[in-house]
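pinging the channel bc i need a second pair of eyes. not urgent but kinda urgent?? the chain im working w is below, pasted from the shared doc
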Amino acid sequence: MRQWLHRFAPALLALLAGLLGVAGLIPRPAATPAKPAADYVIIVGVAGLRWDDVNATDTPAMWQMAQGGAIGALSVRSARRITCAGDGWLTLGAGNLAVYTPGAVTPVCPELDVPITREGGTRPGSGATLPDQSEIVSRNRNLHWGAQPGALAEGVRCTTAIGPGAAIAAARPYGRVDKYAESLDDSLLDACALTLVDVGEIAGNDPVARAADARHADAALASVLAARPEHSVVVLAGLSDLDATSRLHVAIAQGPGYTGGWLTSPSTSRPGYIQVVDLAPTALALLDRPMPVFAGAAAATSDSGRPADVTAAVNRLADADREASVQRRVGTNFFQTLVVAQLLLFLAVVPLLRRARRPAGPQTRRPVPRTVVRAAEVLLIAASLAVPAALVADLLPWWRWPHPGLAFGGITLAVMGFATFAIAFLTRRSRAIAPLGGVAAVAALAVAFDVLTGSRLQLNGVAGYSAVVGGRYAGVGVIGLGLLVTGALLGGAALAQRFERRWRPFVMAVIGAVGMVVIGSPYLGADASGAVALTAGVCVAAAMAVGGWLTITRLLWAAAAALFVGSGFAILDLFRPEEQRSSVGRLLVRTKDGTAGFIARRIAEADVVTTVTSPLTALVLGCLLYATFVLLRDWGGLRRLLGVFSPVRAALTGLVVACLLAGVVEGVSFNVLGAALATALPLVVLSCLRVLEHADDRTPAPRVAEETLES
């Protein structure tokens, strides 16, 4: 019995670590829904309205409403990349991502043209019909999101629409609008429990023209506020963009239950942020109407923490919009530059790899100067720190500078320089894999610290995710997931190398379990799909950590452990509210009701689009070619590195498995693996250089030989 325990204790402890990781992913309780507190709900839509349009001088009604209500940044994501006015209104009425504008959209949205057939002439409050509603319903039924135009109107007995945009949102699935008026009429605000009001658009970038449009919309809003019935909630929403410059927009709710604070929603899990799709369930919750299933949407509530000074609160939201508006352009330039720079650096290191070995005896060729090798090592460390430095750069408001791209680049280079000096100095005389483990751990700790403090660096950050694009507003993003997987596996490998062989799986499992909790916990990373992927990678790495390759027996044990722990993650994901589920949980639910094909096709199409458009795809392909034709050659050093340091071999295998699985399941293709390789491969090349340098050392004992190669 003692011998059995002695042999299997590390494996049992590794399994226990995995189970503890699952326990850390217990779903948090569902958010308290908005309580029925209103007899009337009035939603006022202004296409294109941004927070920098709102001020006490030009828009006094909006300013007063912001002072007394709950405010937030509105993400106007729809089923189109560019959300035009009709798309925003239809998404509001469907409570789901929908598309109204037909055909291709140029950088500027076409004017909103809504065919409306009036009943009873032009008398305000008479009914109306949208003759093309059946076509719109059919078009959205064929999309992957399954939007049902008219879902909001079907949830209430009577709906009033004022203006053409409002008619789109208020039309029932068969095109009927209960009450309609072309212009604002105070007598209609209490005709139905739900009233939708279209007060125009604010388009372009001319400050003078935008201010004039904002004053016009503000005057209409003032009339609504003056004539609003008692016990009503008024919601002001900048429902859409009007051109290709996607932005965050205005969201204000004022009335019972919304007397201050930030607007928030379980769909974003971020105070101060809601989505257009959240407006429909918010209205139904306030009116105490039956709530249909809105995919990825939830009722907005008021959260505390907003500054007492409304000016400071509005400026914070305008600043978030400013950062999000430049994030995509700066991020694209950063990753394109990073890919080119790293691939060129890898090519420049090839001659050093070929001449790195120094065999004993007379030298037939001149060795590379030590200063050149040292400079190459420093550059490789700097390259591996580029993505973590881009994350840390968001500590400073680079987006407020006149040239945000240059400001971001300068801050990132400064962070890289400082971190490179520290890592290079601390590991100059250490073992070959010391930089690999050190940088990987630093990168993962940077992401973990950000997650523990609210993911402020990743939100709208270059190395994070954009609230404009939508899909994620809190937790760990795609790039952060790649860094965490790299840190958990390579950092764990560097630590496991210091232990006896039989304890290495346990060390890998413990570090992996911590990573699973950070990634998958709903209070932290909130990415159950990423946690499942990391589970698979950790199980593979633990099976290989004692040495040797992945045999059939090890593969079966690893697959069984991954299936066991991963199933636990997936089951826990099912207990989360609909709007908080990951792609794994949504896929399981759709499998049960027979609609999993829509989700699978949507994910597959997203993978294809990301593969074609992402610069990280080029990095992954370049790294694959480099490893095949350079590092795996006899003079490349990778085979020797993997032979001497078995935990590193296990970690790299697990890294590829985890990142590929996460990328495919989450619809981001090679982006997770690209972020991981951008940090890992420069360090692997550096380790190959150091291993080759000692490849021909002569030592009297195998243990001494291993220690020499590690130093």
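so The chain has a mean pLDDT of 86. and Residues 445 and 487 are 8 Å apart (CA to CA). — does that match what u expected or am i reading it wrong
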